[in-house]
Amino acid sequence: MTRIVLVDDHPVVRAGLRALIDGQDDLTVVGEADSLDAALAAVRSTQPDVVLMDLSLGQAQGGAEITARLRALPEPPEVLVLTTYDTESDILRALDAGARGYLLKDAPPAELFAGIRATARGETVLAPTVAATLVRRAAQPGPTITEREVEVLELLSRGLGNKEMARELFVSEATVKSHLSHIYTKLGVDTRAGAVAAAIDRRIIRAK
Q1: Which site in 24, 107, 135, 176 is 20 to 30 Å from 184, CA atoms measured?
Q2: Burial 110-119 (b: 16+ CB within 10 A, else e)
Q3: What is the pTM of this model?
Q4: How confident is the model at residue 142 (pLDDT cuts 50, 70, 90)?
């Protein structure tokens, strides 16, 4: 029996997922959580095989941060992201945090069940659009946008100035200016607004 903990801040979503998953003979939901503390407590008390993780939890710690904390536990569960977001920044952040797989909430139930089983076996599970994003990134001609540059773009989309970005990233303003210069060159733009628009259009970051 594969034991699962659900991490999502919407009770109705968790109830729907529980009903679907518990209808499978070999899958069972053993816990639920809507925050970092609740997720850590649920995992420690139930020792699940898989944590089904949403990315946006409406709190300071999102799903990627919680994933990293869970994967740092002495006996970490496998984490399968289940979210509505398929931008490059979300995908990379989740996978870098240690998620084994990444599915979207519009996946049919059979795909979700298969993904949970595969994740429990330690296999990588990716939604087709997610896999396509990673392939496109790997095959992208010329220099790719780095993870730090993605962070800069996300801060830009929030309207932060150079000084505020430097404070957020714990770097100097000169370093921020250098990142911006590289971003402009890679995206073929010459303004902050142009950089944000291009990044959203290319699905590098989410529209705020």
Answers
A1: 135
A2: eebbebbbbb
A3: 0.79
A4: low
